[in-house]
Design a protein that fits this description.
6-stranded mixed sheet, 9 helices, tt1808, chain A, globular, alpha+beta, disordered N terminus, about 30% helix, 15 strands, 2 domains
């Protein structure tokens, strides 16, 4: 009997990965005329050729320069992005810095694609994903699940082939699905003034590199947190595996008719709340007893926005 056509359809996340690989493997003869940012779907961002292996420490110098630009307000791109990267470059960087104190959290799309991100961390970026994680954690504790979930922090995860990544925050159920380097079921990816296409590539990495049929399990949900320092806005998106658009989007902005405030949450406007995170996607089972879906309220998001900007030195 003939197989149904649906059986031959590649999952959306795999299609995205395949397209990125195809873009990266264009004819080298044409690469000099191509803008690498456009080639990788990162138009408007600075994408650099990775330094030679013998000069790999240059990355640290470039990171220091970028941090100075961020502090001075002359740059809004907190992530160093390199193309033509290989595992050998990362090995050389590791040899230079055995403690792995890299310029920032790393996302490597593998030898085939050759794209690597070093996300440098700033206070408002860290506060945004920490507050979101802590609220989710507190809700789970109130359900009596404090001992049944594990924070994965910025652990390094090995993806398909040579790919690897460090997240911002995440949660996995405990006990885990099996032994080994367990993928979280829920991941939080934050970016300060990054483009959404860049954050979406990081979101896609988790879905592409955590097959649900493997012992380590698949990432079910990615929360994308985009921070805009100049306009003091925060956007939070909830993405599910194979989805073509976020299932929920929350926008936090200063109130248009009230003075800017770091101490009164009523001076902040929240659109799109509440955000509901399905319990089953986090714990991989149905609810029991007092357990329920995780609900992030309008009041939480207003306080999150207000407190995030309180940590920022440039308000």
């Amino acid at each position: 009997m003939a197989m149904p056509m649906a059986a031959f359809i590649m999952p959306p996340s795999s299609r995205r990965s395949a397209r990125l690989a195809a873009q990266a493997q264009r004819d080298p003869a044409n690469s000099t005329s191509d803008d690498p940012a456009t080639r990788f779907g990162l138009a408007g961002l600075t994408v650099l050729p990775i330094p030679n292996i013998d000069d790999i420490a240059t990355i640290y110098t470039q990171a220091k320069e970028r941090r100075a630009q961020l502090d001075q307000g002359t740059s809004t791109q907190e992530t160093l992005i390199y193309y033509n990267a290989t595992t050998s470059h990362l090995d050389a960087l590791h040899s230079t810095d055995p403690d792995r104190n890299y310029p920032g959290r790393i996302t490597f799309f593998g030898d085939e694609i050759g794209l690597v991100f070093f996300k440098m961390l700033q206070a408002v970026h860290e506060d945004a994903h920490h507050r979101l994680f802590l609220e989710i954690r507190d809700i789970l504790v109130l359900m009596g699940l404090g001992n049944n979930c594990v924070s994965v922090g910025s652990a390094t995860y090995k993806g398909i082939g040579t790919q690897q990544k460090e997240g911002d925050s995440g949660i996995r159920p405990d006990p885990p699905r099996s032994a080994g380097n367990q993928f979280p079921t829920l991941v939080i990816e934050a970016g300060n003034s990054e483009s959404l296409p860049q954050l979406h590539k990081e979101k896609d990495w988790w879905f592409d590199n955590s097959p649900p049929d493997q012992p380590e399990g698949g990432v079910r949900i990615v929360l994308v947190v985009k921070v805009y320092r100049l306009t003091k806005r925060i956007v939070v998106e909830q993405w599910h595996r194979y989805s073509q658009s976020p299932s929920a989007t929350v926008l936090i902005t200063p109130h248009p008719h009230k003075p800017f405030s770091l101490y009164d949450s009523s001076h902040w406007v929240v659109q799109g709340a509440p955000m509901v995170i399905p319990f089953e996607d986090v714990f991989l089972r149905l609810t029991e007893g007092l357990e329920m879906d995780i609900v992030l309220t309008e009041d939480f998001f207003a306080n999150m926005g207000m407190r995030c900007w309180r940590t920022d030195t440039r308000v």
